[in-house]
Design a protein that fits this description.
The protein is mainly beta. 14% of the residues lie in helices and 43% in strands. The chain has a 5-stranded antiparallel sheet with strand order 6-2-8-9-10. Strands 7-1-12-11 form a 4-stranded mixed sheet, covered by helices on one side. The protein has a 3-stranded antiparallel sheet with strand order 3-4-5, with no helix packed on it. A hairpin with a 2-residue loop joins strand 9 (109-112) and strand 10 (115-117).
């Protein structure tokens, strides 16, 4: 009985240790009144078939094209390096990013490191407006809590910044 109690105590101590993980995420947010289609063109080293590796800390692959609903956001990339700027990390991962609105009156937006078409800001430029948010989550595993602190940089697509 003492041995069992000792084993339970040791397991309890091992699983109660919490170590916070720190991650940086770049996200895109839809602040328009329409559904957006986002087409990502990652650099070839991040590609695996039609999917791209969306994290430098592991996590899998995602499709390069997706729908972004009204008032929603999605992460484009997750990094374990908190010292990067969002525009430079975007340039490191993606050759270009296209955004197409379901509203036919709005032009297609084409972001690339050297220029932007159809929008007043370029998310690759150091003067672009990125929204910073610190978010804390507790992502449980089988045996312990897994606190994660996200340093989120969000680039918002706003209807009033379209260039028609």
């Amino acid at each position: 009985m003492k041995r069992f109690a000792l084993i339970l105590l040791i397991l309890s101590l091992l699983t109660s240790c919490e170590k916070t993980t720190y991650q940086m995420r770049i996200l895109i947010r839809n602040n328009t009144a329409d559904i957006l289609t986002v087409k990502l063109f990652p650099k070839s080293k991040y590609m695996s078939g039609r999917l791209y590796d969306f994290s430098d800390i592991g996590g899998g692959y995602r499709d390069t094209e997706f729908q972004l609903g009204i008032d929603s956001e999605i992460e484009l990339f997750i990094s374990g390096d908190l010292n990067k700027q969002p525009y430079s990390l975007t340039a490191e991962i993606f050759d270009s990013i296209f955004v197409i609105s379901s509203n036919e009156n709005l032009s297609e937006i084409k972001f690339s490191p050297d220029r932007v078409i159809g929008y007043s800001e370029n998310l690759y430029d150091n003067s672009s407006l990125w929204i910073y948010e610190l978010r804390n989550y507790n992502l449980p595993t089988n045996f312990k809590k897994n606190p994660v602190e996200y340093h989120d940089y969000i680039f918002a697509i706003d209807e009033d910044k379209y260039i028609l």
